């Protein structure tokens, strides 16, 4: 018989890496381009790692007991991961989301049994809003366990234990550049810390949304790249606690249009159906790979989730 796993959490991590040969040839690149396919985690995104790291640590410290309620604010994927792992271990979940989150993510959360509270996106443009919403969450759920994905160090630690070592192992230590994005900051910070500890010269490049892809008071419902947050020219107190800016070597901006274009390219050239965040990081990876100084180098791109979670929010492609 083949291997039979005991728990959903046993399925988290060890996602495959795929060399993007067709895109490399199309762009006539002299560097290697390798994608880490995180939508093959059990609940469909890299945030399954975060969810398991947070729940595992809370269990080991005795802060969780059967039947407890887990609460947080989420853009969807961490909530989905938490809802899935929580369901498999006998916990309940409740999440607060912007009302512009894709309907697919909301439906998936509810399918796992999570309670969803939608908050008008206008509220997120007010000064100090994140702290205010976090206070509201804890006031409304005083007996719940607040998972605190933005500030819980279990978030970045799981990536030093899993994502970073997997990339190092599967590239035989040949990785030269890592390209990712920042949501809560845990993925890029934890992965980068591990890789730089093994090879200090590893370059970390982050994709962030262009100015027209960030909601503002004048355009509160501007189209966004879900899960990809701006980190430059942002007040430090507004950045997630898990984001370590010191590990980032370069940040490049991507528009929603570019992110969608490159997500579509990846589907049509390599058969990988990734979300708009995946399109954003691919756009940045190709820009970096085209530089003459990176010829012959190995570039790893983290594709966080599946494009199936965003189809209703996008114009139908030609």
| SS elements, strand count | 10
Low-confidence stretches: none
- Element-level helix/strand string: EHEHEHEHEHEHEHEEHHE
Q: Structural class of the secondary structure composition? A: alpha/beta
Q: Give the % helix.
A: 25-40%
Structure description:
α2 crosses α6. With 318 residues, this protein is α/β, with parallel strands linked by helices. The model has no long low-confidence stretch (mean pLDDT 92). It is globular and about 55 Å long. Helices cover 36% and strands 16% of the residues. It starts with 16 loop residues before the first strand and ends in a 15-residue tail after the last strand. The strands form two sheets. A six-stranded mixed β-sheet has the order 1-2-10-7-8-9. Strands 5-4-3-6 form a four-stranded parallel β-sheet, with helices on both faces. The protein has nine helices and ten strands.
Please write out the topology:
Layout lengths: L16 E3 L1 H6 L5 E6 L9 H14 L8 E5 L3 H13 L2 E7 L4 H9 L3 E5 L9 H12 L4 E2 L7 H17 L6 E5 L4 H13 L4 E7 L40 E5 L1 H15 L5 H14 L8 E6 L15
Parallel strand pairs: 2-10, 3-4, 3-6, 4-5, 7-8, 7-10, 8-9
Antiparallel strand pairs: 1-2
Helix pairs in contact: 2-3, 2-6, 6-7, 8-9
Labels describing this entry:
globular; 318 residues; 6-stranded mixed β-sheet; 36% helix; single chain; 10 strands; 4-stranded parallel β-sheet
């Amino acid at each position: 018989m083949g291997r039979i796993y005991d728990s959903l959490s046993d399925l988290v991590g060890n996602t495959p890496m795929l060399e993007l040969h067709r895109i490399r040839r199309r762009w006539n690149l002299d560097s290697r381009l390798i994608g880490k396919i995180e939508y093959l985690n059990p609940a469909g995104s890299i945030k399954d790692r975060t969810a398991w790291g947070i729940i595992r640590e809370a269990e080991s410290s005795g802060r969780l007991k059967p039947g407890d309620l887990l609460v947080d604010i989420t853009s969807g994927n961490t909530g989905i991961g938490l809802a899935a792992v929580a369901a498999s271990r006998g916990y309940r979940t409740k999440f607060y989301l912007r009302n512009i989150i894709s309907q697919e993510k909301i439906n998936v959360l509810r399918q796992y049994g999570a309670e969803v509270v939608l908050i008008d996106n206008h509220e997120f443009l007010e000064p100090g809003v994140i702290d205010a919403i976090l206070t509201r969450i804890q006031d409304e759920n005083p007996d719940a366990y607040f998972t605190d994905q933005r500030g819980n160090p279990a978030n970045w630690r799981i990536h030093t234990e899993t994502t970073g070592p997997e990339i190092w192992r599967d590239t035989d230590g040949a990785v030269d550049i890592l390209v990712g994005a920042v949501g809560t900051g845990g993925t890029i910070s934890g992965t980068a810390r591990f890789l730089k500890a093994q090879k200090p010269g590893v370059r970390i490049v982050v994709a962030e949304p262009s100015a027209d892809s960030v909601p503002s008071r004048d355009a509160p419902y501007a189209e966004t790249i879900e899960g990809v947050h701006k980190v430059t020219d942002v007040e430090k107190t507004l950045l997630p606690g898990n984001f370590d800016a010191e590990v980032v070597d370069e940040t490049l901006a991507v528009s929603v249009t570019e992110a969608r274009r490159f997500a579509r390219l990846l589907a049509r050239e390599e058969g990988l159906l990734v979300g708009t965040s995946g399109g954003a990081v691919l756009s940045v990876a190709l820009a970096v790979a085209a530089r003459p100084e990176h010829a012959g180098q190995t570039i790893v791109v983290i594709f966080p989730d599946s494009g199936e979670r965003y189809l209703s929010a996008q114009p139908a492609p030609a």
